[in-house]
Amino acid sequence: MSRIETRTISVAVTFFADLRRFLPRGADGPQRYALPDGATVSDLLATIGIAPDTDLTAAVDGELADRETRLRDGADVMLLSPMEGGAATTVERHYGRGPGLVDAIRRALAGMGKDPARLAPADLAPIDEFHLRGREATIELAQRAKLAPGLRALDVGCGLGGSVRYLAAEHGCRATGLDLTPEYVDAALELARMVKLDGAVSFRQGSALALPFDAASFDIVWTEHAQMNIADKRTFYAEIARVLRPGGRLVFHDIFQGPAGPPHFPVPWADEPSISHLQTPDEARARLADVGLTVHDWVDETVPSLAWFAATVERLRATGSPPLGLHLLMGSNAKDKFANMRRSLEERRIVVVQATAEKT
Ligand SMILES: C[S@@+](CC[C@H](N)C(=O)[O-])C[C@H]1O[C@@H](n2cnc3c(N)ncnc32)[C@H](O)[C@@H]1O
Fold this sequence. Notes:
Structural class: alpha/beta
CATH class of the largest domain: Alpha Beta
Bound molecules: S-adenosylmethionine
């Protein structure tokens, strides 16, 4: 007699604030639940014994989820009480700074004596290049990408859209940015208007795990300092491979897990470990190969990143913080985040890689 095997998945659930009342007696910390393959957040709640009408917010792998969201094997689920609202950590909440971001940028530009009618895209670089080595790294990555005018480029996790504007203005690419954080997408568009590039670029709010674009619709996929917030790397790379045309290239500049243990928190991409999902460079290479992306360049940029940190700290010591800078994006613990990032680099808890891979 043949037996029908039903695959099960396992998810880790963290309960926050008053939702801790649903923790099994005597338990603490994340709990594992086994569910049938294809199970949704609703199914998980039923398994835990949480009534369907309970007022709560669920986040899966750092992103807000609804009750119909399907769970993957190994997913990290957070159950948050609506009462704790702002305190709850999801990727969007971590990065979101509220609706006043563009006004704060305008004020900072005015404080630096910039004429709003004569802004160049590079004037925004102190804030719209939210990654190690700022614009210098973007220029280097563009050289690796072998760009040409008219190429269709997608920046996944584009933040305020600095690289998207750079690709359009300096290389004539048809550039699109996608980001999860709604305030960043709104700001990216407004900043494009400010430098008169809104006709040359476009921005979409959405998830890297479900790219809202047709298959084979880009020549270049570009991503800087976003993958460390993404738990489901297989879907991340598979989505990139899907939207690239055959022969198209992925180029990235990112932070990976180093050999010396987890980073010190908070860091710029996460106040605490629940939304930090670092992989080692070897894991990344294996996952790229799995989805048909063949690595061409693979360059460890940890040492230049550390040198950049040292030079930046020296400059800030001499001149003080400029009005326009990444501190506007990093909240009240910006100093700790910078210091921990530098220390984590020095101790090789994190390493930095620039790479290119081709869809074969
Ligand atoms: C450190 S910022 C880097 C922004 C930009 N790439 C840059 O270098 O200036 C990380 C960005 O990744 C975005 N992000 C994180 N997870 C994402 C996801 N699953 N889908 C789309 N964007 C994501 C965040 O919203 C944030 O804007």
